[in-house]
Amino acid sequence: MTAPAATATAGEVISRYLTEQAGNFLRALPQAVGEAGARPGALPSLNSPAGSGGTLELLRAVRRVGGALHTFGAVFEPGWAHESRAELRWLLNLLAQEPAYQRRSARLLAAVDSLSGVAPAGEGGPGMLAGHQGAPKARALLDRQLTLARTRAHSTVLQELRSARLHALADRMTLLVGEAPLVEPAWGKAGEVLPSQAAAAFAALGAAVQALPLRRAATAYQGDALHRLGGAEPSGPAVVPPQGRTGDADSALAADDAPWHRVRILLKRTRYALEVCGRPGDQLVELDRVLDCHQEAADAAVTAATAARTPRITPATAYVLGVVHADQRLEVEAARFAFGSRWPELPLSLDGWEGPPGQRMG
Amino acid sequence: MTAPAATATAGEVISRYLTEQAGNFLRALPQAVGEAGARPGALPSLNSPAGSGGTLELLRAVRRVGGALHTFGAVFEPGWAHESRAELRWLLNLLAQEPAYQRRSARLLAAVDSLSGVAPAGEGGPGMLAGHQGAPKARALLDRQLTLARTRAHSTVLQELRSARLHALADRMTLLVGEAPLVEPAWGKAGEVLPSQAAAAFAALGAAVQALPLRRAATAYQGDALHRLGGAEPSGPAVVPPQGRTGDADSALAADDAPWHRVRILLKRTRYALEVCGRPGDQLVELDRVLDCHQEAADAAVTAATAARTPRITPATAYVLGVVHADQRLEVEAARFAFGSRWPELPLSLDGWEGPPGQRMG
């Protein structure tokens, strides 16, 4: 996308963006349905990448349309925008699970392999668990549990992809192609209406980042992920404990991670808002990737801890799962360090639109 | 100590240093014997700091005399110096064990407490193992095994502190007070003889550091301690596996740690050589501390791994020990990072004695 022409209205700019994304949605949908149901009745092939092609394209479009409807909500018919966002969130949660389980499986099995020195690592030699008798069992346990979770997620997708709810959502997307239901502020100049709304998204992101323990995260090896949890985020959002049986430890970690996960969502919204406005967001893309890693490592750590509570496993297996858990929490800490190192380089303002670029907020 | 006067001979300077250290040795020895045998026949109080006072002073003197005899070996009668160093090494190994077990116990129990959130941490909240059922059991297991090891080390010290071998070593130290058996190069000017020998110690240290994977260690979160082991040190010294049952993993870690442990020894020698020459070595003191931490964390990780192989422990206990193992290996990695960050700031040369200070080697 290019920057909006000076004469364009806000409605024209946002409609052009939504038309493009809704088109992507409608092209990707049948492809995703085909992928999911390619072998009806059979289990999905667990070796082929879940959501390659169609599903990932669909997720991309869903995130962008939802983000635009949220950030630029003032230019849309409110009831319609609200409903649309709810339905998009439903589809997002539905579709994201299977690829997430697949990435988590790849991440955890690679960690076990690397720690036990069986991975075809380039320069590395044997890892911390080289020759450890528990490693193959822990690997098999993780593989089994994540395959089961992925299979269940796939079945749910298969069911819902044929539902009336999805058809209704597809109809909504069809309407978006050229005909988004706009209201008053949409008739204003794009350069006046949109930046202020994108700036609000940016401000929300900035405020959430300010509340993070960034100074600590920006110093390496502060033990954030392993030792210093909880106390620093007294006003964090309510914590939804991860699925499965949970202990105090899981809750403490979830509470510690929650503000970071929230920043990830706000950062995606800001990133898409910049896309709507035709502004470059390369730095946000990179930070988005870092926070995706943060989330995936945090989820993987929970999976390792949950697997360690499987009845009748051997102590050797449990020991390896403990190492893997700590390893993934270390990845969480590394992601925070990477975020903390890069964030201050961002020009935290949209002033660039109306003044000199590069100015920093706070 | 102050820098040697321009007119002093090498023998005078080194004798003054050895007289001081041998005096420390002879004052600390009866105190250490008294501490060890305060309650003959009874077990030592395991709550009082082992080697507080006497033993630690004795260790300080033993390390310094041994270091001086090694680095400035050319000015001593060779047979005498060789024998003295062997006897000092014996006493060092004998005395260092009990305080080492005590520090390791403190380190590991603090790690379990911190990870399980029961430590009275200032700003931190609950850690990664908060409420985990295995934490108290793992703590008790580590406490029991390290107490046993410390008690054994104490008994050995008690025996040897009354041995003829120790009395003979004390006689050697008495001889050192004012009467070190010097040979020819000792009559040369201190400013000409000593720096070249200290420089050789510095060069040995520099060469050993060059062989470390320093560039990797200087970047945070490279997974050195957990993942990338072995391959990088093809020419490292032969590895003595840690005590107890060992697996491939322990061997791989020991091989990875060995070059760092070697640098620690060379750094201590260099540090004491600077003391002899009356030169400031504050930066080396700090790096020495970092490498002590490196060694202690590496040893603690082995203890956690060994404890996890105790028969009939529960999976929950083993899981916690796995987390603790990874945590200590993370401390190893953090120490390498700290070393890699500070080392390049050192003026790696003794040219300061004969030219402009601050010049850097290689």
Automatic annotation (TrEMBL), chains A, B:
Residues 232-251 are annotated as: Disordered. Residues 7-348 form the CHAD domain. InterPro entries: CHAD_dom, CHAD_dom_sf. PROSITE patterns: CHAD. It comes from the Bacteria. Pfam families: CHAD. This is CHAD domain-containing protein.
